[in-house]
């Protein structure tokens, strides 16, 4: 697998995952859920939420092709469907509506929110999983096994970097909230929404090309 493709897979996956997870949007959720917790407990919640999100995304990357095979779904169909989902999520963020991985209201009666709702659906919700499975279809289309292994490794690295960035943002949530303010957070969300629409359109175009090649 050429080194240029390594960078293409890595940066393509990294940008897509950062946009879809939108770490800054997790600041209000994290602050509200961990309010009143000791500092050390807040640190643990951020750490485990990032770890769980990483594991969910890696499992989706591994199992994506297996699920497509079981249900008889072509790579082109999955990529088109995933692109439509991602583009619609971006449209909602851009013009107002639900966030890409919106966590439902949670009663604050427990002291562990790291898996639900922080990791799922907060960080690695349906939109994130759709993006990861979309990249798994691209791995499947690499011709040789060493190339598939290299593509899997670089996308896993992108998932790890994304999880690390989310962890850093949650650890720094109080500072980030003060620095950005409500207006800054809203503007950033709009930018992320526009980028998601672009990523979704790219996924659809790639899926159509796969359909055409297979017909």
From TrEMBL:
Keywords: Cell inner membrane, Cell membrane, Membrane, Transmembrane, Transmembrane helix
Location of the protein in the cell: Cell inner membrane; Cell membrane
Top-rank lineage group of the source organism: Bacteria
Annotated membrane topology: Multi-pass membrane protein
Major subcellular location class: membrane
Claim: Phosphoprotein is one of the keywords in the record: no
Transmembrane annotation, as ranges: 6-25, 46-71, 77-95, 115-137, 149-170, 191-212
InterPro entries from the UniProt entry: Multi_antbiot-R_MarC
NCBIfam families in UniProt: NAAT family transporter (TIGR00427), PRK10995.1 (NF008228)
Similarity comment text for this entry: Belongs to the UPF0056 (MarC) family.
Protein name: UPF0056 membrane protein
Organism: Mesosutterella porci
């Amino acid at each position: 697998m050429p080194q240029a493709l390594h960078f293409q897979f890595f940066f393509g996956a990294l940008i897509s995952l950062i946009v879809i997870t939108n770490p800054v949007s997790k600041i209000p959720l994290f602050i509200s859920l961990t309010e009143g917790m000791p500092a050390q407990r807040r640190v643990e919640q951020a750490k485990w939420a990032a770890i769980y999100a990483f594991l969910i995304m890696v499992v989706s990357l591994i199992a994506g092709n297996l699920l497509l095979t079981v249900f008889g779904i072509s790579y082109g169909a999955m990529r088109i469907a995933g692109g439509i989902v991602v583009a619609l999520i971006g449209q909602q963020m851009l013009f107002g509506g639900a966030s890409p991985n919106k966590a439902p209201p949670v009663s604050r009666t427990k002291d562990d929110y790291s898996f639900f709702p922080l990791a799922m659906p907060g960080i690695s919700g349906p939109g994130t999983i759709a993006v990861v499975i979309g990249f798994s279809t691209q791995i499947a289309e690499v011709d040789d096994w060493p190339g598939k292994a290299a593509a899997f490794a670089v996308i896993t690295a992108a998932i790890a970097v994304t999880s690390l960035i989310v962890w850093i943002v949650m650890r720094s949530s109080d500072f980030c909230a003060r620095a950005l303010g409500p207006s800054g957070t809203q503007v950033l969300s709009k930018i992320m929404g526009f980028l998601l629409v672009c990523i979704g359109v790219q996924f659809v175009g790639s899926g159509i090309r796969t359909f055409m090649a297979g017909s």
